[in-house]
Batch of 3 targets.
Target 1
Amino acid sequence: MTAPEPGPGGLVPDGPGIAVPERGAWLRRGISRDGGPLVEDREVVWLQAGSYYADSRGFAGTTSFDGSQVHFHHLTGEPGEDAGTFRRDGANLVERGTNTDGSTFLEIWTPLPAADGACGSWSGPDHHVVRVGRHVVHVDSGAGTYWRL
């Protein structure tokens, strides 16, 4: 079996997805919507601690993996659920998926430094917090907020 040839931008075409790491702090390096150009319009941080995640865009909850796609179950903040197929591109994670409105996306996630050390997830009425090393994301019904300790 031979490896697929890289496509545009050096990315390998889609294949079976992988589960996301159980622990990680990730900075989004770019997003392509509906096949458009890869751009970044704001700082987006995603933290993963076990099956719990928090995204600085304003949603948090749990992840599950069905053998092909990772499902993000939104439990706090912005309602919904989304799914994506992940694969590695060096140290980065490349995510491709479809939103509930049928639009598609491709996101490039780069690991953040200083992700070793304390790690955990806490929730309460209308909020969820995930910490991975020096990175913290807090999500409530109003917004998501990222801090670096």
Note: The two ends are 45 Å apart (CA to CA).
Target 2
Amino acid sequence: MSDALAGPDGALRCPWALSTEDYVSYHDEEWGRPVHGDDALYERLCLEAFQSGLSWITILRRRPGFRAAFAGFDIASVAAFTDADKERLLGDPGIIRNRAKIEATVANARVLADWAPGELDELIWSFAPDPGTRPAPAKLSDVPAVTDESTALSKTLKKRGIRFVGPTTAYALMQACGLVDDHLVDCVARKDTL
């Protein structure tokens, strides 16, 4: 028996997706879909770090504000942010005003600006597990919060100078960016990805 629930359109979905309209759209159109590109992955990495300790809906609803505040998550642009930019961000009501997370976002951009084009994409995707080794989850309790791969990804990113990326954050990144497919077995979004 699966935990999937029928949405307003009658289609079965992961239960978390039905709590708000914003979640339905995010779940159906984004979560678990492959994301590539250094800037796109940097954005997801930053947003997952900002989410730490908060609900994802808080971040999702502020994503336009984050994109505006952080120059569309263009790594080179954020790497050039000054102390004045950081102070501006601390006063920006469109984002989560957490000094440590803002500092990490800018510091991570500075690290990544020195990487070769495509290096972040290649590194993150190198930790994607073989999909054949992962049965589709039937229940929410079948979905882990941390895996060996997310722990290894976290350690590798930290060794390379990336901050605010523990194993749980790394696994949330892997889920959001399609490295793993944690849609429940009879979820309409999982069927769409086959």
Note: The CA atoms of residues 69 and 92 lie 8 Å apart.
Target 3
Amino acid sequence: MDWKLALQLAGVVLGLLYLWLEYRADIRLWIVGLVMPLVHGALYYKSGLYADCAMQVYYILAGLYGLCVWAKKPKPAERETGRIARTPARMWFRMAAAYAAIHALLYLLLVRFTDSTVPFWDSLTTALCIMAYWMLSRKYVEQWLVWLAVDVVTVGLYLYKDIPLTAGLYLLYSALAVAGYRRWLRQIGQ
């Protein structure tokens, strides 16, 4: 079996398990989230998606952080929803600024230090992933909308890079991001 296919199959299985756990707001998603980056990191490196590959290191570190945050015992007022909440309005400007800075930095690094053929798109999806993962650690409902944007762009990017099974996974992620958003909204009564 060719390495690309094997990595894609393993990534799809882990990705589906991860998304199912995320949909259910199950803390075990962080455990799967510590294994999955190893598989995807190898796939992205071999495919020349260097920012996506480097992102996997972030996923491991952020996964450890998310696990710690989610493992903290919720306050009495947070027990009913499991702390799921809307993103505070005061955070949006800071998050947009952080996204823009991360995107610009990654783009410059890819252009100057790699042979990436898709530096803008690779840095765009990576910067959005960083923001979405942080939002997930905080259980902000709108993280699903950021993931939806990532997923839609990633489908095209991965088809272009000839990793169609992983592109298919992200197409499924797109549909599940909509379902996850709606489910989390219901959980907080909206």
Note: The chain has a mean pLDDT of 90.
